[in-house]
Amino acid sequence: RRLLLLPPNHLDAISQEGLSEEREAAGSGGEPARKGKQRRGGKSKRKKAKTDEDDDGWGEEEDSSETESGGGGPAAGERQREHPFIVTEPGEVARAKKNGLDYLFHLYEQCREFLLQVQSLAKERGQKCPTKVTNQVFRYAKRTGASYINKPKMRHYVHCYALHCLDEEGSNELRRAFKERGENVGAWRQACYKPLVAMSANHGYDIDALFNAHPRLSIWYVPTKLRQMCHVARSGGGAATSAAGGLPPPPPPMF
Amino acid sequence: RRLLLLPPNHLDAISQEGLSEEREAAGSGGEPARKGKQRRGGKSKRKKAKTDEDDDGWGEEEDSSETESGGGGPAAGERQREHPFIVTEPGEVARAKKNGLDYLFHLYEQCREFLLQVQSLAKERGQKCPTKVTNQVFRYAKRTGASYINKPKMRHYVHCYALHCLDEEGSNELRRAFKERGENVGAWRQACYKPLVAMSANHGYDIDALFNAHPRLSIWYVPTKLRQMCHVARSGGGAATSAAGGLPPPPPPMF
DNA sequence: AGAAGGACCAGTGGTCCGTA
DNA sequence: AGAAGGACCAGTGGTCCGTA
Q: Residue ranges under compositional bias (Acidic residues) (chains A, B) (predicted)?
């Protein structure tokens, strides 16, 4: 069951060791390992050879077509990243060093499971219990081996996941349309904002309420840009722009 | 209406100016005002002469009995603080440079009003809306002139306020008993923990649930020590201490 | 060019400890 | 001594920008 959650090309504990070595090597002499703006040098991450259990049918590849370093795993000095996403239809499996959108959404479900575990641990220990996917959860995910999950990525696509949660049909249609047109992931991502703003209008443009009403979505922070777009839509959506003085801003057109 | 919320001895805008001067004087030469561990020197706060409107019947004094500086307001170089709390019965007004516990609890109600204002502003502006009394709320309170409200003080007595909210009768009895015995505020404060832990037992020792069930209490963070005490009570409250290996810790005796 | 993510940064929750 | 609160600090939310 757990293995089904692994990504097609995840990094493993070996990478963690690589990181550790890097960290230790940095503090030469034992001083508190200054973290100046320049801490980008050391390249020592490694990728492990893919094992059979890792093939979970989610995307597959990254094996024989390993060109950059001849034989086995990549040489030291290569920085391993997740493959970029491409716009895929629902159910479509991405090929050729790409990841599909089903996999993207799957990462959000994984984060939710990590949150549930962190919550469960916190309760056992009598500690504060997070209600959202926090830094603590990302750290836990990484420690648990899910090194392919990171905060910037998850935050970047939250609103895409939101559309998937709130209007799966609409989300699916959008994916098909953008794949058809050959648009890249960035364009699809941008297009996910509009239907969400439209949905928020039915709730007085309260995007937080919309997120909180959905149990799998409520654990995610509302992205700043989406909140701003809903605010602008509420304020500027009407015919005329209020020319009156400062105080009570445009009333929300509720339902 | 607003004036009724002011404390018996609040500081005012003058104090803020004093602080500003202090801050500017610190950065001698224009460098980024280093904030080393030593930033404790400058004394430049001032207290303003009390005006008639300030007499709101909450505690009164600090007027003619001003001994330390002869005539009018205190001289520059005096650091003004709120008067310390003393244990008072419900309805009892503290005298002689002391503040009573009704006033303490009143501060919590004031913070709630400041939170409501911050929330209202945030919603108007389409910004994140705090659900708790955060740093932002304390900053807003201070800016609005409530310089007598500060975070360490409010956090220090949160559990006392919790008892007042959740069991006003019990809280009142405790106050009477501790006043009778001539106990100081610290002793009364310590005594407020126990009844709360006992109440939490009825909710599976889930102190967060207890806080969240009360609308005026739910806006306050659960104090670390109270959470720990509830955890200890849940774990060690039973007859025997589990000698078994690590994993599933003591089950909560729920109701 | 398009995209993934290490690392930074302003402001947070939490509370110590120099102060009165 | 008992108590109020300025100021510190580790770890947060947020995302930029050097990287691949």
A: 52-66
Instruction: Give residue-wise pLDDT tens across range B200-211.
Output: 999 999 999 999
Give the total residue count for chain A.
255
Span CA (B34) to C1' (D8), Å: 13
Question: Which residues, including other chains, have CB under 8 Å from residue A120's CB and lie 6 or more apart?
Answer: none
Q: Minimal CA–CA distance to A60: which of A117, A10, A2, A19?
A: A10
Structure-token pair, residue A9:
């090309």
- Which nucleotide's C1' atom has the smallest distance to the CA of B187? D2
- Which one of B127, B230, B249 has the shortest CB-CB distance to A124? B249
DSSP code at position A93: P
Q: Is B228 within 8 Å of chain A by CB?
A: yes
From B232, B8, B219, B218, select the one nearest B103 (Cα to Cα). Answer: B8
The model's pLDDT over A55-88, given as tens digits with 9 standing for 90+, comes to 333 433 333 333 333 444 455 555 689 999 999 9
Reading the block at residue A69, the tokens are: 């370093």
For the CA atoms of A200, A201, A205, A206, what is the dihedral angle to 10 degrees?
-50
Largest CA distance in chain A: 71
pLDDT < 70 stretches in chain A: 1-79, 237-255
Write out chain A residues lying below 8 Å of B230, CB-based.
126
A249 touches chain B (CB under 8 A): yes
Q: Is B208 part of the contact surface with chain A (CB cutoff 8 Å)?
A: yes
Estimate in Å the CA B79 to C1' C20 gap, whole number.
Answer: 8
Closest to A220 (Cα-Cα) out of A133, A159, A161: A133
Which chain B residue has its CA at the smallest distance from A233's CA?
A: B126
Least confident of A5-14, B139-148, B185-194: A5-14
For residue B78, the model assigns a pLDDT of 58
Instruction: Find the mean pLDDT for residues B36-60.
Output: 35
> What is the reported pLDDT for B55?
36
> B126, A208: Cβ pair inside 8 Å?
no
Strand partners, B99: B85
Closest CA to A65 of A74, A56, A53, A57: A74
According to DSSP, residue B23 is labeled: H
User: What pTM value is reported for the model?
Assistant: 0.76
Confirm or reject contact between B156 and chain A (CB < 8 A).
no
Nearest nucleotide by C1' position to the A224 CA atom = D14
